[in-house]
Amino acid sequence: MQKIRSKFKFRTKSDKKAPEKDDKTIPEAALQETTSANLYPGLKEDPAPPTKNARNNLFEGAHDFVMDNVAITAVAGNVIHNHYHSGQATDTSIQKSQSATLDALELATPVTSKIFTGRDDLLNEAVQLLCSDKQAHLAVLGPGGIGKTSLALHIASNEKVAEIFKNNQYFIPCDLLPDAPALVQGMLQILNLSPPEGKDGYNILYQYLKLSESNILLTLDNFETPWNYKDARENVRNLIEKIADLPNVHMIVTMRGPDGPGNISWHKLGTDSGLPTLALDAAKAAFSAFANKKYGGDDSEKLEILLNYLDCMPLAIMLTAQHAKQLPLNTLIRMWTQKKTSMLNEFGTKAGKLTSVEFSIDVSLQVVASSDREALKLLPILSYLPNGIPLWPDTVSQIWPEFDHLELAISSLLQSSLIFSQHDTLRMLSPIREYIQKKYSAETIHLYQMETFYLSFIDNLPADEALSQSQLDPHFGNITKILKDQIEGSLQQSHFDAVAKVTKYTKFYSSSIQLLESILNQKSYLSLNVEMEMKLKKIEMLRWMGNYQEAINMIQDIQRNAEVKLNLNDNSLIFEAQQLMARSHQKLGDIYYYQNLYSESMKAYQQGQYHFKAFGDQQGVSECLLKMGEIHLIQHRLPEAMAMLEGAKIHFDRSGNQDYSAQCLRGIADVQSKERKWAEAEENLQKAKHQFEAHGHTLGVAQCLIRLGDMYRLQQKYPEAKELIEKAQNHCDLLEYQLGAGQCLLSLASIYRIQDQYALAINTVMQAKLQYERVGHQLGVAQCLKLCADLCLLQDKKDEAKRHILQAKTYFEAVGGQENGIAACFQSLADIYKVEGHPDEVPMLLKAKETFESIPEWVGVAQCLRSLADVHSGKGEYFIARKMLEEANDHFKGSNHTLGMAQCLQRLGDIHRKLSEHSDAMEKLQDAKTQFENIGHHMGIAQCQMSLGSIFEIQENFAEASRMLEGAKKEYQTMRNRLNTAVCCKSLGSIYLKDNQVEKALESFEEAKTSFLEINNQFYAADCLWILARINRFLGNISEANAYLLEAKKLYGMIKDHFGVAECLEDLANISRMQGHLSEAIEMLEEAKEKFLIVGSHIKAAFCLQTIGEIFQMQEKFDEAMDHLNEALNYFSSNSEHKLAIAQCLCFIGRIHGQRGQFNEAVGAFTKAHSIFQTINARPEEHGYCLYDCGLVLLDQRKYSDAREAFSEALEIFTLIPGFEQEKEACTSLLKEVDLIESEDLEQQLQVVTLEEKNEN
Fold first, then answer.
1. Which chain positions lie within coiled-coil regions (predicted)?
2. Residue 167 is part of a domain; what is its CATH number?
C-alpha cells in the first residue's frame, strides 16, 4: 500500500544547532512581509520573542486552561492534552493531545487502500484537473463514512499527480488540528519547516508556500474539525483563503457537508451534495474484496439485499464485510433487521470514525446539537420517512407549520451531511436513518401531522391513472409506513378510503399489500362483507405479483367457508355464499390463466359463470365469458373466441361498462389480426384504445399499443411498429407491468432480427425472457426461446439454436393447446437440419405440416409446403417443387394471406430462372414484386429485384441489372437491413466489373466491405477484400492488391476459413513471384496447398503444386520441379474435368525434359498435351506454346519434318489470335531455319553422294 509521507527531519527539543543544509528555511528579509496579525485579524502578535531555549509554539505562555472536556497544560514547553469523557462519543478530531507532534500527524495519516471501487470516474476527473495548466482546488464532500479520505488518497497517490507534484504533496489530518493556530503548527510539522528564533510559525508557512518555485499539493483531510470548532471559523477561513490565493498551491479538502470552506472556487467531486454512495456493482465488488470472498448465485442476490439495507455506504460496507469473514450472509441480514447500526462496528476496537458508523454519526450530531436545537428536533421526523421528503421546498411547511425556522433548520442539517438533497428530495442514508430512529423518537403530534398530510394528498390525486401514479411514486414508502403504523394503532374510516385508493395501482402492490394485511389483522373492526372484499383484493394482488400458491390457498379457504354456508339452507347465507363461490372461481380462473393452465382456467371460469347466473349477476357472467373468449383465442379456436367476445361486448355496451367493452374490442381485434383482417383489427384496436384513454386506464392503453405495434410489425411496417411498441413499453415500465414489458421487448427483438441487429435482438429477447420468467408466463418464455433459436441459427450457432428450440418446444407442450407453437418449433428444427445437411429436414417439415393440419392452421401448412418446395428445388426436382408451391399458394389465398401468395410467386419465378426460362421467370417475379409493393413488403420487393437483376445480368443487360440491384439496395436501406444492403453493393460491384465500369466496381466493393465490417460479417468482408485485391492487381496497383490480400487473409483466419486463407496465400505468392521473391512465393504456396488439403480441395492444392513446379523450373531446380508437377498431375488426373490443367502440367514436364536433354520424354509429354488441347478446344495460345516448345525439341533431335509440322500448326494457331505477332514471327523464323537446315543437309548429302560416286569411278 502506498502511503503519502511528508519529507521531514527529526529534531529533539535539545537541538540548538543551526538548520542543516536540507532543512527548509526562509531568508530573513522575506519574513518581514507578513505577520500573524495581518494574516489572522483576530490574533495578536506575541508580546515578546521566545527565549533561546524555548521551542516556538503557538500556545507559548499558556498554562492551565480548559476547552470543553479537554484540559491543556503547558509543561516544559510541550502541550499535553488529557480527555475527560462525558458519556457521549467524542470526536477524535478534537483530541489535541498530540496536535503539535509530527509522530501524531504521521500516525493519523492513513495508507492508500488497495480496495477502491466505483470511484474511477471521479478519480480521473480529479487527476485531469490537477494535471492541467490551471490552479485546482478540489472539494471531496459528503457525510461521514462515504469514502472522502479514500478518494483523496487515491487522487494524491496517482502516478500522473505524483509526476506533477513530485515531493511537494502533503497530507494534513485536520481532525488533530481544531483551529487556525493548530493548522499552522501542523502544516509546519508536515512541511518540516524550522523557523528562525524570534519569528512566528505563521510567517514561515506563508512565505514558504508563496516563494516555492514548485507546485505544491496540500490535502486537508477532515477539515470540518477546524471549520466547525467553536469560534475558530473566521481565522480558519482567513488562513485557507490566503493559501488558496497562492497560484502555485493546489488543494484537496475533505469535509462533511455539501460545500467547501471559505470563498474559494472549489471544484466539487460527485454531486451537488457531495460524494454519492457506491453503485450496487461497485458495492458488491468492495464487499467481496474486504471479506476476501466471492459471492455468486443465491449469495449474490443475498448480498444485494444486504447492501441495499446499508444504502451502499462505503464505511458500512467495510465494517459489515469484516463480519462476513466469519459469518454467512443470512446471519448478517438477520443481524441488520434485529440490531441495525449496532452491528456496524469493528469488533474489539475502540469506537472511532473509521471503526463505528454510530460513532461517525455522533460526530455530526454533536455539531448540530451545539449549533441548532430546532434542527435536532427535526431529525427524528425526517428519519421516520423512508422516501425522505419529495419536493421539500413546497412540502415541509405544509406538514409541520409550527416550526419557526424550518428552512434554516433544514439548511443546518444539510450542512452537517446528516441529510442531503437529491432532485428536490430530502434524503437520509439508511444507516443514519436507522441510528437516528434508535436514538430519538418522533413526537406523536408530528406523526399525526404527517398522516393528515398524506391522507389529504391521496384524497386529492388526479383521476388519470398514469398521472396520479407518478405523483404517488416518490411518496409511496412514506405512505405505507405512516398508514401501516396508524392502522395498527387505531383503524379509522379514512384509512379504509386511503387503502382502497392506493391498492388500485399495480406498481405499488408489493408495498400496498402490507396495508391490506394490516387492516385484515384488525378483524374485530371489519364486517364480513368488508373482510371478503379485502381478501379478494389481496388475492388479486398476490396473483399479479406471481404468488400463485398463496392466492390459491386463500381462495380454497374462502370456498370452504362458502360451502358451509350453502349447506345451512339459510337463503340470506346462500346468496352470500353464491357470491363468494362465483367471485373466488373467477379469481381462480385468473390465476390459472396467467399460469397458462388454460384447461384449468376454463373450468374455473365456467364454475364462476354458473354461480353468477345462480344469483342473476349478468356482469359477472359476461366477465367470465370475456376471459373464456380470450382462452379460445390463445388456443386458436377463432370462431368460438369471436362468438364469446361479441356476446360479452353486447352486455357491457348495454350496461355502459366502457372499460370491459374496450377489453372485448381488443380481443375481437386479436381474432381479426390472426385472420389477417388488418383494417378491421386496427379500427377496433383504435376504438378500444380511445375508450381506455377516456377512463384513464393506462394498462389498457399499453396493451392496445402492443397489439397495434405487433400488427404493423407483421405487415413489415417496422418504423411505425417500433414507435408504438416503445410507447407501450414506457407505459408498462411506468406501471411496472412485467408481462406487458416482456411482450414489448419480444416484439422489439423481432424487429431487430429483421433489421439484422442480431446482438441487440439477442440482448432484448433475453430481457423479455427474464420478464416472463418473473411472472411465471411460460408461453412468453417459449416464444422468447423460439426467437433465440432463430437468431442463433442466423449467426450459424446451430448447437445453441437446437438447444433453445427444444426448450421452447417443451414449454409449448407444458402450456397445452399450443400446437401452433409446437409446429413452429418443428419448422425451426427443419431449418437447423437444412443448414447441417441433416436428412431429417424433410421428416421434420412433414411433422410440422401434420401438426398445423390438426389445428387446422392453413397458413402454417402453406409455409411447410413452401419449405418442402425449397428442398425439392435445391435437389433440382423442379416439377415437384412447382406443384407444392401451387398448393401452398392456394392455402395462402384461402387464408387471405397476400404475403404468402407473393412469396410463392417469387419462388415460382426463381424456379423458371434456374431452368433458364427467363420470360416466364420475369413474368412471375414482376407479379410477385407488384403484390409485395401493394402490401409494402420491402423484403419481398428487394428479393424480386435481386432475382430480376440476376436475369438481366445473364442477358448482359447490365444497365437494367444495375437498376434492379440499386432498387433492392434502397428497399433494404429502408428496412435498415444492413446485411442485405451490403450484399446488393457486392452484387452491383460484380455487374459493374462485367460492364467494364472498373471505378464503379471498386466503389461498390469498398462500400460493401465497409458495411460487412460494421455488422461484423467477416466472411463477406474478406470476400470483398479478395475481389478488390484481384481488381487492383489487374490494374497494376500491386501494393494495394497486396494490402487487400493481407487484410482478407487476416479476416479469413479469424473465422477459421482455411479455404479463404489459402486463396489469399495463393494470390500473395503470385505477386511475390511477379516481384522476383521466389522463395517467399514457394513458402506461401506450400502453406496454401496444406490449407486446401485440410478442406478437401485437392484440385486447388494441385494448382499450388503446379505453380511451385513452374518456379522450380525457372530456378533450374529440375528434380524439385518434377516432383511437384508429377504430384499435381496425379491430383488432376483423378478428375476428368481438369484436362486443361493436365495439359499444362505435361507442357511444363516436357520443357524440363527438354532442358535436361531428355528429348524423347519431352516429345512424349508435349504429344500428350497436344492431344488434350485438341479435345478441349480451350486456351489456344497455350496449345500454340505447346506445339512451339515441342518443335524446338524435335529440332534439337534433327527431326526436321516433325519440327516443321509442329511449328506450322503453332503458326496457324497464333495467326488466329490477335496480339500474338511475336509468336508468329518466331514460328515463321524457325520454319525458315528448318528449311535452311534441310537444304544444307540435302546439299551435304548430294556432295557426299557425288564424292562416293567419284570414288567408285
1. 915-978
2. 3.40.50.300
Tell me whether residue 902 is exposed, middle or buried, using C-beta atoms within 10 angstroms of its C-beta: 0 to 12, 13 to 18, 19 or more.
buried
Residues 184 and 293 in one domain: no
What would the pLDDT profile of 255-311 be if each residue is shown by its tens digit? 998 999 999 999 999 998 899 999 999 999 999 999 999 998 889 889 999 999 999
Residue 130 lies in a domain: yes
The Cα 59–Cα 75 span in angstroms is 11
- Rounded CA-CA distance 475/480 in Å is 9
User: In Å, how far are 469, 681, 704, 779 from 775, measured between CA atoms?
Assistant: 22, 28, 20, 11
CA distances from 736 to 73, 466, 733, 782, 1190 (A): 66, 11, 5, 22, 88
Rounded to whole angstroms, how far apart are CA atoms 942 and 811? 36
Domain boundary among 291, 318, 344: 344
Give percent of the chain with pLDDT exceeding 90: 59
CA distances, 1019 to each of 188, 803, 1012, 1015 (Å)? 69, 25, 8, 11
One domain, residues 172 and 287: no
Confidence of residue 1249 (pLDDT cuts 50, 70, 90): low
Q: Residue 74 — φ and ψ, nearest 5°?
A: -90, 120
Domain assignment present for residue 6? The answer is yes
DSSP state of 48: S
Tell me which residue has cell 433453445. Answer: 804
Q: In Å, how far are 612, 618, 652, 807, 862 from 647, measured between CA atoms?
A: 16, 12, 9, 38, 32
Is residue 901 pLDDT above 60, yes or no? yes
Instruction: Determine whether 187 is exposed, middle or buried from the number of CB atoms within 10 Å of its CB (0-12, 13-18, 19+).
Output: buried
pLDDT at 102: 81
How many domains, in total, are found in the chain?
3
Residues 24 and 134 in one domain: yes
Work out the mean pLDDT of the chain and round it to a whole number: 86
Task: Return the H-helix or E-strand segment holding 913.
Answer: helix 898-914
Tell me whether residue 258 is in a domain: yes
Whole-angstrom distance, CA of residue 691 vs CA of residue 675:
24
Degrees to nearest 5, angle at CA 399 with 396 and 403: 70
pLDDT-based confidence at residue 92 (cuts at 50, 70, 90): very low
Three-class HEC string of 991-1025: HHHHCCCHHHHHHHHHHHHHHHHHCCCHHHHHHHH
- If we measure between CA atoms, which residue out of 636, 594, 629 comes closest to residue 609? 629
287 and 271 within one domain: no
In a domain, 457, yes or no: no
Q: Are residues 1154 and 1245 in the same domain?
A: yes
What's the CATH code of the domain at 1215? Answer: 1.25.40.10
Residue with the larger pLDDT of the pair 638 and 865:
865
Confidence of residue 158 (pLDDT cuts 50, 70, 90): very high
Q: Residue 461 and residue 287: Cα distance in Å, rounded?
A: 42
pLDDT digits (tens, 9 = 90+) for 1040-1077: 999 999 999 999 999 889 999 999 999 999 999 999 99
Half-sphere exposure of 808 (CA within 13 A, CB side): 28
Kindly tell me if the per-residue pLDDT of 997 is higher than 60.
yes
Do 272 and 289 share a structural domain? no
Whether the predicted pLDDT of 618 surpasses 50: yes
The answer on 257 and 124 residing in a single domain is: yes
- Taking alpha carbons only, the member of 79, 103, 80 closest to residue 11 is 103
Q: What is the pTM of this model?
A: 0.57
294 shares its domain with 152: no
Residues with Cβ within 8 Å of 831's Cβ and at least 6 positions away in sequence, in order, are 790, 793, 867
Supply the range of the domain harboring residue 292: 283-344
CA gap 1076, 889 in Å, rounded: 62
d(CA 184, CA 204): 9
H helix count then E strand count, the chain? 58, 10
- Report pLDDT for 1247: 64
Q: How many angstroms separate the CA atoms of 396 and 401, rounded?
A: 8
